[in-house]
Structure prediction request, 260 residues.
Amino acid sequence: MKVFILGDLEGTAGVVDFQRQTYSDAKYYEQSKRLATLEISALIDGILEGGASEVWFLDGHGPGGVDYELMHSEAKMVIGRPLVAPWGLDESFDALFLYGHHSMANTERGVLCHSWNSRAIANCWLNGDLIGEIGFNAALAGSFGVPTVFISGDDTAVTEMRGYVPNVTTVETKIGLSQTSAVSLSPLKSRQLHQEAGREAVEKVSEIQLFSIAPPYEFVTELLDVDSVSLKAKQADVERVDTHKFKICSDTLVGIAQRR
Ligand SMILES: [Zn+2]
Prediction:
């Protein structure tokens, strides 16, 4: 069995602050990356115990969200920028794991919630429905026939994922109190749960229904800054919707992901 882990940094236990923990100039950024990497390595231990033979890991946090020195020895790491979708993900994979994810922008109590870019994007819609990275990436994998079988993150990220895949295996790393506060698991407990859930998720792969969204696709982005919309609207195939929104259309989610 071949597994693809898409990782982020905002859902890691102990991580609750953009300015101090997740931005590249944050004082505790290196510590956040270590916390994440140790959870990912525990998750990979579980995935291998469950019987997977190959594990890819894509670092999805914009400025980088892992400390390579601490990464599990068996991980095949997809790293660096620019990374163009679908980043090596294809029909040969049996399952997608979403590690350390966050809920979409404007989610009540959503710890570090945002949609792709916390400093630029207000909201996103796919075919008329609000969507964030969780739903979009699950649907993108679904377009290759790959089911999303695991998510870890705060309780609002887990709830968002269950809206797409009700019986997904989960690790709730923290209960959100606000966008920048939470009741968090300790790092040691969170690693333990990641290992157990990784094994369980692999064992349950055949029970998970594929989540997919039928084409064609219309993706609307609402930006915080009007001037950025004007700039974006100059690109080919980008249509301005109103002062703050632009849209792109495609017959594939990869096409959306590459241009959004
Ligand atoms: Zn991130």
